[in-house]
Specification:
It comes from Aphis craccivora. InterPro entries: Endo/exonu/phosph_ase_sf, Swc5/CFDP1/2. By secondary structure, the protein is α/β, with parallel strands linked by helices. The protein folds into four domains: 16-72, no CATH class; 86-219, Endonuclease/exonuclease/phosphatase (Deoxyribonuclease I, Chain A, 4-Layer Sandwich); 234-304, no CATH class; 355-395, no CATH class. The chain is built from twelve helices and ten strands. It has helices spanning 2-14, 32-43, 100-115, 152-164, 202-219, 234-245, 252-290, 293-304, 326-337, 355-363, 378-382, 387-395; strands at residues 19-23, 47-51, 59-63, 66-70, 86-92, 122-128, 167-168, 183-184, 191-192, 195-199. The relative contact order is 0.06.
Length: 396
């Protein structure tokens, strides 16, 4: 029973959410809302962003199992995604008849809203951008599955994505051209892709992390790291374990065994330490002979390392110890660096990483390094092949 529950939890955790954005050109027509719900049910859509709703006022209501929040109301949903929150921002950009200054002002408003979200959360910005990003690839922003030729508003959207490290997801996966266009000019003279879904890429990163860690748990053996001296080998550790079994015994036989193993541990440890020191000295001498001074000095530091005390307190300008954390630290910073708060967001774009550079950096990852908060080691990344490596390259 527990196994079935765990499988169900795992299935729900990995269930993909279908997110779409549509320009419906008004839901004010009788029956249009019902039509929308039928299409959502048919296409199995979980969340949809609607442009040009053309409803007056603001509202939040339920209609036959669908929750509808319209006209930019404050978020009121009590549903939360796990393990982190998901923020969804629906956008409608003015058409090309409006001035660039107006478009830039709207981008600033979007930036202000994004600044209010938690940086660790998933962010989805979707809607009718009235821009064409085209089929040409922009590394880290768009794929090759757009439509048409990029226009000026498309360049503005891409610059915005670079600044916010967002990815235009519906240009990343293959689909036939007949499914890419969103808006058709009257008479069918031209078709355009102007609705886009922007993602902060944390979803793809989380899926990759989950896949790697699950594969590692299934196929790799995890061992607990023993924080011991470098000369303590497995034989000595086994003797220590045997000694521990007799440590709390009160019988004469048990105390005798404890003393025996205690002496064995001390004797073997001294012997192993002396052997390790001799080998290390030989290694240092060999490095100096070969001219490998950096490696030699690194080994020497193991013998003559000076440990410095770390500062565990922070004092204010008046010399008193600061104990109230963040607030006092802010006062201290303002007092030493000036009270004027500046808000500066300098964006420096980097050139796209080449596939060859990515391959080289991946192969040069060092072994036996500590993992980060994602519990993924360099060895796991180097073992990626095919699609896994391609996904990692796209995320980077």
């Amino acid at each position: 029973m527990d196994t079935e529950k765990n499988k169900l939890k795992e299935k729900n955790k990995l269930r993909k959410r279908r997110i779409r954005t549509w320009n419906v050109r008004s839901l004010g027509i009788c029956g249009k809302l019902e039509n929308l719900k039928i299409e959502m049910e048919r296409l199995k859509i979980d969340i949809i962003g609607i442009s040009e709703l053309k409803w007056t006022g603001k509202g939040d209501f339920w209609s036959e199992g669908y929750r509808i929040i319209f006209s930019g109301d404050e978020p009121q949903s009590n549903r939360k995604t796990k393990p982190v929150d998901t923020f969804i921002l629906q956008v409608y950009m003015p058409t090309s008849t409006h001035k660039d200054e107006e478009i830039e002002e709207i981008y600033e408003q979007i930036n202000e809203v994004i600044e209010m979200t938690n940086k660790k959360s998933n962010l989805i910005v979707l809607g009718d951008w009235n821009a064409i990003v085209g089929e040409s690839k922009e590394h880290g922003v768009t794929g090759t599955f757009g439509l048409g030729k990029r226009n000026e508003r498309g360049h503005m959207l891409i610059e915005f994505c670079k600044e916010r490290t967002l990815v235009i997801t519906n240009t990343m996966f293959p689909q036939p051209i007949r499914r890419r266009y969103i808006w058709t000019m009257s008479g069918g003279r031209a078709r355009y892709q102007i609705d886009y879904i922007l993602d902060n890429d944390k979803v793809e990163l989380e899926k990759l992390r989950h896949t790697i860690t699950k594969a590692a748990e299934k196929h790799l053996k995890f061992t607990k790291e023993m924080h011991t001296k470098p000369w303590i080998n497995n034989e000595i550790i086994d003797l220590i374990e045997k000694r521990r079994k007799y440590k709390n015994t009160v019988s004469e036989e048990g105390m005798s065994e404890y003393k025996k193993y205690k002496n064995l541990v001390n004797r073997e440890a001294k012997k192993a330490k002396e052997e390790w020191l001799n080998n290390t000295c030989k290694d240092i001498d060999s490095c100096l002979t070969k001219g490998l001074r950096d490696k030699a000095y690194k080994n020497i530091k193991r013998f003559f390392r000076e440990y410095k005390d770390k500062a565990t307190i922070l004092r204010g300008i008046d010399g008193k110890i600061i104990t109230e954390g963040k607030k006092k630290l802010e006062e201290y910073t303002c007092g030493t660096m000036g009270h004027r708060k500046r808000r500066c967001r300098a964006v420096k774009y980097r050139k796209p990483i080449l596939k060859e550079e990515f391959e080289t950096a991946l192969n040069e990852l060092k072994h036996n390094k500590a993992t980060g908060i994602d519990n993924i080691s360099g060895e796991m990344l180097k073992a990626l092949e095919g699609q896994g490596k391609e996904i990692l390259f796209k995320i980077i």
